[in-house]
Design a protein that fits this description.
By secondary structure, the chain is of the alpha/beta class. The protein has three domains: 105 residues, Cobalt-precorrin-4 Transmethylase, domain 1, CATH 3.40.1010.20; 140 residues, Rossmann fold; 86 residues, Cobalt-precorrin-4 Transmethylase, domain 1, CATH 3.40.1010.20. Strands 10-9-11-1-12 form a five-stranded parallel sheet, with helices on both faces. The chain has a four-stranded parallel sheet with strand order 3-2-4-5. The protein has a three-stranded parallel sheet with strand order 7-6-8, sandwiched between helices. Helix 9 links the parallel strand 9 and strand 10. Helix 1 packs parallel to helix 14, helix 6 packs parallel to helix 7 and helix 8 runs parallel beside helix 9. The longest helix is centred in the last third of the chain and has 18 residues. 45% of the residues are buried.
């Protein structure tokens, strides 16, 4: 494969929400005997899901079929209120790994609906985040994916009805901006949150990709087909003028005819080990240039239910497993399970996944 140079976008790969979700599910796997259940894929990455499935995690699309009394995790994409309520029935141990940025949108929708707003929600039909968000106030919200659909809603909104605009967190800026502009044209008094709903990590990964796409003969985006932010990266690369854009799940899917300068990035659910494998297969003769546009230091702590759960198990679990052994592998931490959670910031999800395989 005659690749001369690899341009490696940074930031790339795991975001803070994915880190939180993976580490939380790893705790569940370590604490409970299998099976541990998870509502929907914990994150949208085939490689990560397969690793957890090998540890006895059962991924389901209906919580009503989950046996009573078993451990159940809700995915990072957020769940409909009725799903959360149903999950907590029948004595199940439930931990909600929803990303805080998704929770923010749920709250915004709930508040706007209570105030009588019609809410335009920019998102992808059928995506788990969109489904869960819209279920918060189904009678008040309209899903829009195009500027034409904004026009359609404008024909049915009553005179004097206030209108708000919210968004799926994993959209590309280009997907969002055109619809936002049209909504502002149709609804001059449109309400939008003071801080954008678009995930900072998604935006950062798109900015890093834009910094390399114009210099590359081809761009490789690593991530799964059902990952919205990964597909958004594909769109960004094409819109930036890159002549060839490929999405792969892993290195063995790379074609043999790549040449010249190749840009590489990864969706927010894709582990860095996949990036390392792709770069190794490309084997650039002139090496790798790391193109960094910003540093990320955002951290989301473990779900409160997980902390309460481990605190409740307390001494029995520490005695039976050992506090450090029970915790995800990483930096040394204070004794005791609660202390181990306090050290969570210093443990990467990549290390946790590696520990599960060992």
């Amino acid at each position: 494969m005659p690749v001369e140079r690899v341009l490696l976008a940074s930031p790339r790969g795991f975001c803070a929400g994915v880190e939180k979700a993976i580490k939380a599910l790893a705790w569940m796997v370590r604490v409970f005997e299998p099976p541990v259940y998870c509502y929907h894929e914990i994150v949208h990455n085939r490689h990560v899901v397969e690793q957890f499935a090998a540890q006895g995690v059962v991924f389901v699309d209906d919580v009503d079929g989950v046996p009573a009394g078993v451990p159940l995790m809700l995915s990072a994409h957020g769940s409909a209120p009725e799903v959360v309520e149903s999950a907590r029935e029948r004595g199940r141990v439930v931990v909600d790994a929803v990303c805080p940025l998704v929770t923010k949108v749920h709250h915004e929708l709930k508040v706007r609906a209570r105030k009588g707003y019609t809410v335009l929600y920019v998102g992808h039909q059928g995506h788990e985040e969109a489904v869960g968000t819209m279920a918060v106030a189904p009678d008040a919200v309209h899903l829009v994916e195009t500027e034409a659909e904004v026009d359609e809603v404008a024909t049915v909104v009553g005179r004097g009805t206030p209108v708000a605009l919210l968004a799926q967190t994993t959209l590309s800026h280009d997907e969002w901006s055109g619809i936002k502009d049209r909504a502002l044209e149709r609804f001059p008094d449109l309400w939008m949150p003071g801080r954008s709903d678009l995930c900072f990590a998604t935006t950062n990964r798109q900015a890093a990709l834009k910094a390399i796409a114009g210099r590359a003969d081809a761009v490789v985006v690593i991530g799964s087909d059902n990952s919205s932010n990964t597909r958004a990266l594909e769109q960004v690369a094409r819109a930036s003028g890159c002549p060839r854009v490929l999405r792969v799940n892993q290195a063995d899917e790379l074609p043999d005819d790549l040449e010249g300068t190749v840009g590489v990035t990864a969706g927010a659910s894709a582990p860095d080990e996949l990036v390392d494998a792709v770069v190794a297969r490309l084997a650039p003769r002139q090496g790798v240039e790391n193109v960094r546009v910003t540093d990320e230091d955002e951290y989301f702590p473990p779900p409160p239910e997980l902390r309460d759960l481990l605190r409740g198990l307390g001494g029995a679990l520490a005695t039976g497993l050992g506090a450090v052994e029970a915790a995800p592998v990483g930096a040394s931490r204070p004794a005791g399970l609660d202390g181990a959670l306090d050290g969570d910031r210093h443990v990467s999800a990549a290390d946790v996944l590696a520990a599960l395989r060992s």
